[in-house]
Write a structure and sequence with these properties.
140 residues, 5 helices, 35% strand, 6-stranded mixed sheet, 24% helix, ph1033 like fold, alpha+beta
Amino acid sequence: MAYWLIKSEPNSWSWQDQLDAGEEGTYWDGVRNYQASNNMKAMSLGDKCFFYHSVKEKQIVGIVEVIKEYYPDHTDPKGRFGMVDVKAVRSFEVPVTLADIKAEERLSELALIRQSRLSVVPIDATSWDLICTMGKTDAG
């Protein structure tokens, strides 16, 4: 299993929207950056992703699971990009902010910090466990 972080603007698609999607989950569309798209191509069924509210909030608020691997994005008229489907797994008891992550030296190499504009980034297993601990959330 691999770990990822996916970003969403909460006014476009919030954690509550994701929770409301239920067990069927929903597609993660609209990614238009080749590196972020390549990260989604690397996702496998069962991979876990942090759900990150971007823009004003800048915090991890939950965990989703990949339930359908990369396929064409219906919102891309040129057919260059794809999407995955995800479902909510659990909410963070305590949201983990970008400031919290930046303050933790052991997380200084995360792509979230080094490549802050990417909407889909990998997370190593050690960092995954640490962030889950910070959020008082079960890492499994």
